[in-house]
Amino acid sequence: MKILGYSERGLINSLIFNIGENKELMDKFIRLITFPTVIEIGEPHNYEILIEQSFSEFGNADLVIVVHYNNPTNKKVLFIEGKVKTVQAKTWSLKSQFDKFIDINKTAGYSSNLFFQLKSKELLVGTLNGNHQPDKYGKQRKLGSNDIVMKSI
After folding, report:
1. Phi and psi at residue 33, in whole multiples of 5°?
2. Which of 9, 19, 42, 120 is the 20 to 30 A CA-CA neighbour of 140?
3. Are 121 and 58 in contact (CB under 8 A)?
4. Using an 8 Å Cβ cutoff, are 79 and 64 in contact?
5. Measured over all CA atoms, what is the biggest interatomic distance in the chain, rounded to whole angstroms?
6. Can you give the pLDDT at residue 108?
7. What is the predicted pLDDT for the residue at 132?
8. How far apart are CA 112 and CA 109, in angstroms?
9. How many CB atoms lie within 10 A of CB 21?
10. What is the model's pTM?
11. What are the residues whose beta carbons fall under 8 Å from the beta carbon of 64, sequence distance 6 or more?
12. Secondary structure of the chain in the HEC alphabet?
């Protein structure tokens, strides 16, 4: 079998729609994720999935997985950014993405940088927790009032 594709959106959609509503498959998928810090996933009760969700000035997330537990006050939110670089496979690396993020002096043209996207989601979480901080360019990002964005929040 040969499957071809070039977009994060297609990759994420294919993955999630193949998992479907099968909690056991989602459990297995979640356990494949390696986190940079120790995050205990535990035994989720259920999941809520948002694909290509807009967060206004904080950007879109390729995939958001809300991990629900039996205690409704406990939940974890995972922001997942996908990158498909078939043409740039030899030159694209996490290190090169990070180096570009550190050297960015302007916002134009850099919004697809992996670390720029992840930093935007970190700023979103900080804003939601009352810790409003400007981005590295001094811009104070806002959620706005779009009903769909606000419902996802």
Report:
1. -80, 135
2. 9
3. yes
4. yes
5. 49
6. 57
7. 87
8. 7
9. 9
10. 0.84
11. 49, 50, 53, 77, 78, 79, 80, 152
12. CCCCCCCHHHHHHHHHHHHCCCHHHHHHHHHHCCCCCCCCCCCCCEEEEEEEEECHHHCEEEEEEEEECCCCCCEEEEEECCCCCCCCCCCCCHHHHHHHHHHCCCCCCCCCCHHHHHHHHHHHHHHHCCCCCCCCCCCCCCCCCCHHHHHHC
Kindly list the averaged pLDDT for each block of 10 residues, start to end, along the chain of length 153: 70 89 93 80 91 93 94 90 74 83 68 86 93 84 92 92
Nearest to 143 by CA among 131, 130, 127: 127
Nearest to 124 by CA among 144, 102, 148: 144
Structural tokens at position 43: 């035994």
Number of residues written out for the chain: 153
CA gap 124, 118 in Å, rounded = 10
> For residue 152, which amino acid is it?
S
